[in-house]
Amino acid sequence: MSASKSRATNLHKAERKTLISFLLLYSLFSIVLLAISGYLYYSLQKDLMLEGQINKLQEDSYRLISRLRYLHEHIEEDRTYPRFPGFRSAIYDSSKKLIFTTLDEENANLDKQLYTVNDNIHYVRLLESYYLGAMYIVIEVKDSGQWFTYIKKEVIIYGIILFALLLLVGYYLFRMMLSPMRNSLSLLDRFIKDTTHELNTPISSILTNIEMIDESKLDPALQKKIRRIDIASRTISNLYKDLTYAALGNRVTSRDEKVNMYLLLKERIDYFKVISSSKNINCITDLHPDVYLTIDRTKITRVIDNLFSNAIKYNKRSSFIKVTLREGYFEIEDGGIGISDESMQSIFDRYTRFNKSEGGFGLGLNIVKAIADEYGLEIKFTSQPGEGTKVRISWKK
What we know:
With 397 residues, the protein is α+β, with helices and mostly antiparallel strands. It is 52% helix and 19% strand.
């Protein structure tokens, strides 16, 4: 299998997720704010347009009243309702019942003096003298809609500009809010890096000296103490390697090679033998020889060590761990406490631990996922609470 490297990004995955959520919420708020502002601007311009029409409408109403007065006085001579080329009209009695109309809109709202309906402007006037039994007259003129076209264009153009500016401001606000957290994380990473560097020499020294001890020459009580020191040292060593990877991460140069997975798995099983035997865990192996994977040896070792360490850590006493190796995949299965479906959703999140009674920082599976993503490895978890967990790491043959 050939290694395929992931492209480095400026923002951490969690930061990108938070940024997207923040911008979505901020955008929604901005859209609502702009929509309200646009509506208020539209209403203001509409009122200004109507005010600009009122003088003409009043003149038209005087012309209609004058004709109604003449018709009222000469009803026997002329019974034709007056019509005008510039506007349409209607008359209503005191009960607001229609007497006659030439309006496009049949139902006029007599409670409003000036309003628009569809593409028409209505002006309602109360008569002082009842001509032909009319108490209300309604003048209707066509609304050209030019003002609306102009307003719509303005709202769209300025809305887009303001929305873009608000998004830009939101992004910089987010970066400003994120800056203190980034500085804190940077200090934490530096502390971890410096601490792990200082731990390297004493841990290596302890492990080397333990391996040099001839336990056959020691009495059983001392052998037990040495074994405990060995277990603690290996646990610290594994934690040290996780902290180192977490601190350095993508800054470590990969050295890919053709790794013999059979030999590597046997080596790591042997490394954890002291720890697994302390819980009386039986390690069952079913390993096919001559299985190879092109990858950085240190990184695939981190994957194996973290999975095997978890299989021991979350296992029951006197239980088992089964390691299987085939062409294209390896599996590590345990008879431990298992993982609930709810916990499976966040299994790869950094600093997530599923059993607070056990040690660790919750880095292991996050590191496994990062390495798997870098090399295109597929991770498959199957777990049953109280029965155990099986993890399969597979790759293209």
